[in-house]
Design a protein that fits this description.
- The complex is a heterodimer of chains A (114) and B (409).
- Chain A is built from three helices and six strands; from the N terminus they run βααββββαβ.
- Chain A is of the alpha+beta class and 114 residues long.
- Chain A has a single domain, classed as Alpha-Beta Plaits, CATH 3.30.70.
- Chain A has a four-stranded antiparallel β-sheet with strand order 2-5-1-6. Chain A has a two-stranded antiparallel sheet with strand order 3-4.
- The relative contact order of chain A is 0.33.
- With 409 residues, chain B is mostly helical.
- In chain B, α4 runs antiparallel to α5 and α9 packs antiparallel against α10.
- The longest helix of chain B is centred in the first third of the chain and has 26 residues.
- The chains are: A alpha+beta (114), B mainly alpha (409).
- Chains A and B meet through α3 of A and loops of B.
Chain lengths: 114, 409
């Protein structure tokens, strides 16, 4: 099964992190990527730019409304994602636990049967 | 319909339903399809066993019939429209018997930590315990619709999220087994929660939890914590008839009429503890404490020194502040109220809102003759207590203290 690991968290520490701190976290993600690769589980993943750079497009009654900022103005924002292949939820949860992020939401990807 | 006609199929239902369902679920990888096909098979059984006589091996007959019904259903396409993803099933070796027992897989799936606790409880009673949705709804004082929705939602999550249908292995197993035990114990403690429902319903729920405990012990005979949980529940439940007075009020352990205890059940509980030996985990240790109480002929025969030591062990295992509180109570019995009081000293940070901390202090202060301090603590406890029976008890204890000077006049 495919699962999306959604990395949620407070962006502030990251936004304010110095070069050393960033280096350290990127290294952790590097190791996580190696784990996924060694299990043939990596199916993609990206870091997202800070939510202050987001634009939200809402459509209602044929009108389009653009707003500056993310969909939900909460402290916890989506900061990135990994798409992984796992044999079941237990394996996906194992990856989520190994993932260097304080909050990881594990969502199964809907797979259409032929 | 004669009673005998219901008898065969009904007995087969009691004995085989959960095991057959677990097996069919592994084969079909679809819990709904397994449940419906097995239902079909039982419907045929009710109809046919009376006419043609009961088959020599009812379980095998039901299994074959259910498999055929599943094929029928799949062929008719009756399931295609609402089909959830297939369950992830390991091809693990099923036990060597005629009809392998897959209930352990079912138990681990129903108790998976990715499910919300109410869902775990409902699924476990339904699919491991074999209760109907209606029975579970009645035990938890909710409507059948609510309970059905809860079960459906949990089943959907199992299929959609890919919760595997398997017994966890290796390093994963101990924590997951603790999870299964926790669900069963929660069902048991729910039965003893003071929230309504009446004696009958609560005793029934406790008995169901004990039934699940027996099932689990049958499936994992060697595990000391499985035996410990079963012993703990059995010993507690053996006291049920002495726990409440004529008006439904709570009767505390020292005041209980011990002739009302079910001594045969106590024997069963004690036997479970003695057989398990080995590494005593939290359940076995709690069972050992319950065993000390159950073996005391009179309240004053209780071996409080042993109980204090066991609570010390339990505190080491769990790090729980509530356990410390219980250890303090036991120590007060063994060595006097001052020793107990001292053990409560650093608990305020851990239990800031728990009424039992000031209530326990009040009782110990009272025994030390410090009425004034005891009253203050009763006041604190009354401000925190949540349920009526406990409030009434605290009020009566406090008022006894208030009456002392009046009688002195």
């Amino acid at each position: 099964m495919k699962y999306m690991l959604l990395l949620w968290g407070d962006e502030k520490p990251w936004a304010e992190a110095g070069p050393e701190e960033r280096e350290r976290l990127y290294a952790e993600h590097g190791r996580f990527n190696e784990l996924l690769a060694s299990r043939d589980a990596a199916r993609g993943g990206e870091e997202l730019a800070l939510s202050s750079s987001a634009t939200t497009v809402r459509k209602r009654d044929g009108e389009t409304l653009l707003t500056d900022g993310p969909f939900a103005e909460t402290v916890e924002q989506l900061g990135g994602f990994y798409l992984v292949e796992a044999k079941d939820l237990d394996e996906a949860l194992e990856f989520a636990k190994a993932c260097p992020s304080d909050v990881v939401e594990v969502r199964p990807v809907v797979e259409y049967q032929g | 319909m004669t009673p005998a006609r219901m008898g065969g199929a009904e007995r087969a239902y009691q004995e085989h339903w959960a095991r057959l369902l677990a097996l069919l679920t592994a084969e079909l990888r679809d819990l709904d399809l397994a449940e419906e096909s097995l239902q079909d098979a039982f419907a045929v059984a009710v109809d046919r066993w009376d006419r043609d006589g009961e088959p020599r091996n009812p379980a095998a007959w039901l299994l074959v019939t259910a498999r055929r019904k599943a094929v029928d259903r799949l062929r008719r396409g009756a399931v295609a429209a609402r089909r959830l993803p297939l369950l992830v099933v390991d091809d693990g070796p099923s036990s060597g018997s005629d009809i392998p027992d897959d209930r352990l897989r079912m138990a681990f799936t129903c108790c998976h930590p990715a499910l919300a606790m109410p869902g775990r409880v409902a699924l476990t009673l339904r699919y491991v315990g074999g209760l109907t949705t209606r029975q579970i709804a009645r035990l938890f004082l909710v409507t059948e619709t609510t309970m059905a929705a809860r079960i459906t939602r949990a089943k959907k999550k199992i299929a959609q999220a890919g919760i595997p249908y398997r017994v966890p292995s290796g390093a994963e197993l101990p924590a997951r087994l603790d999870g299964v035990l926790a669900v069963i114990y929660l069902i048991f403690t729910e039965a003893y929660a003071p929230a309504g429902g009446g004696r009958l319903v609560r005793d029934e729920l406790a008995a169901e939890a004990i039934g699940l405990g027996h099932t689990l012990r049958e499936l994992i005979p060697g595990d000391p914590e499985v035996a410990g949980l079963l012993a703990l529940m059995t010993l507690h439940h053996a006291r049920r008839d002495a726990r409440t007075g004529p008006r439904g009020e709570l009767v505390r352990l020292p005041d209980q009429d011990r002739s009302l205890w079910h001594h045969d059940e106590i024997e069963t509980g004690l036997g479970l503890i003695h057989k398990s030996g080995a590494r005593p985990g939290p359940y076995l240790t709690q069972a050992a404490i319950a065993a000390e109480h159950a073996s005391a002929v009179r309240a004053e025969d209780t071996d409080w020194r042993s109980i204090t030591l066991l609570y010390g062990e339990l505190e080491r295992l769990t790090g729980s502040a509530v356990v410390r509180l219980n250890r303090a109570v036991a120590l007060a019995e063994a060595e006097g109220p001052a020793a107990g009081l001292a053990l409560l000293d650093d608990l305020d940070a851990a239990l800031p809102y728990h009424h039992l901390l000031p209530a326990t202090r009040a009782e110990l202060l009272r025994r030390l003759g410090r009425a004034e301090d005891a009253l203050t603590q009763y006041g604190r406890a009354l401000a925190l207590v949540g349920n009526d029976a406990e409030r009434a008890f605290l009020l009566s204890r406090r008022d006894e203290l208030l009456e002392v000077p009046r009688t002195g006049k």
